[in-house]
Amino acid sequence: MFLEYKKVHNCIIIGSGPAGYSASIYAARSELNPIIFTGDQPGGQLTTTTSLDNFLGFPNGINGVDFMENCKKQAKRFNVKIVEKTITKVTLSYKKGGIHYIFFGEKYIKSRGLIIATGSTPNFLGLKKEKKFVGLGISFCSICDGFFHKNKVVAVVGGGDTALEEANYLSKICKKVFLLVRKNYFKASKILQNIINKKNNICVLFNTSIVEIIGKDFLEEIKIYNKQKQNYKTISISGLFIAIGHIPNTKIFSGKINLDKNGFILVDTRDTSTNIPGVFAAGDVQDINYKQAITSAGTGCMAAIDLDKYLYSINKKKLNE
Questions:
Q1: Mind telling me the catalytic residues?
Q2: Domains, the chain, ranges and CATH?
Q3: What's the chain look like in SS3?
Q4: I need a labelling partner for 79 at 20 to 30 A (CA). Which of 33, 154, 239, 273 fits?
């Protein structure tokens, strides 16, 4: 891929999930000539999803890899430059209309506009077969994958708000939900605890951790250990939902852009702008609540529109000077 290193570009996008590709398509249609850097996981987390069943416009669902390949093809149709490189460093300008430097290895590219869509990475338990069975019984999103376990037995790991919300959602469609909490108490809010305690088909197991994931080609059972009783038990389940948090992929932006205490990029409540002029954030990297493919695509659209308005304001100012 030929890149003009000396040229100051209008739109550089870091990340190639739904947010990044959505941003690239909208930016291309606004004639911003976007360049998208895919990173070390082209397509993002959806490439680990066997079936995307709740994205609007796909009545029969679609494989996650196929969906992201469609996004890539659509971006190419609008002549988006796709670079299969990982951004290693950025130097950001705090001046409106300033130039941002985006580095990949020893090379860099310059741009007045930057859209960060680097996503987040779910925390794993660190068990053998765990990553192998992602999409084959193991999931990080009940809204995304709960439907496939309708009227079946599942388990949720975690004791915070997210875990209890996952368990509550699954209890409405699954036969039984085991809620596995490593400590002897919930970290979640009282209101969520009260909801869970009223559910007849949710079995809460405190002081419990998973020690083994069992299955040949897909998840079949889990072996758990109860620290208080000091005993092991094997549970047959069709799905395991891991809800112990996500790590936003913002390491290279630390100290250069405003982040919250957990490392997510802070954006304006009205749009996708960050505290740095010309820098916008979309998708899971700034989303602490929804983390859905469709909301990521939506914020990608927003970021491209916000960037277009920003660039217009800069050019308008120059004309008036």
A1: 141, 144-145
A2: 8-121+246-320 (3.50.50.60), 124-242 (3.50.50.60)
A3: CCCCCCCEECCEEECCCHHHHHHHHHHHHCCCCCEEECCCCCCHHHHHCCCECCCCCCCCCECHHHHHHHHHHHHHHCCCEEECCCCCEEECCCCCCCCEEEEECCEEEEECCEEECCCEEECCCCCCCCCCCECCCEECCHHHHHHHHCCCEEEEECCCHHHHHHHHHHHCCCCEEEEECCCCCCCCCHHHHHHHHCCCCEEEECCEEEEEEECCCCCCEEEEEECCCCEEEEEECCEEEECCCEEECCHHHCCCCCECCCCCECCCCCCCECCCCCEEECHHHCCCCCCCHHHHHHHHHHHHHHHHHHHHHHHHHHHHC
A4: 273
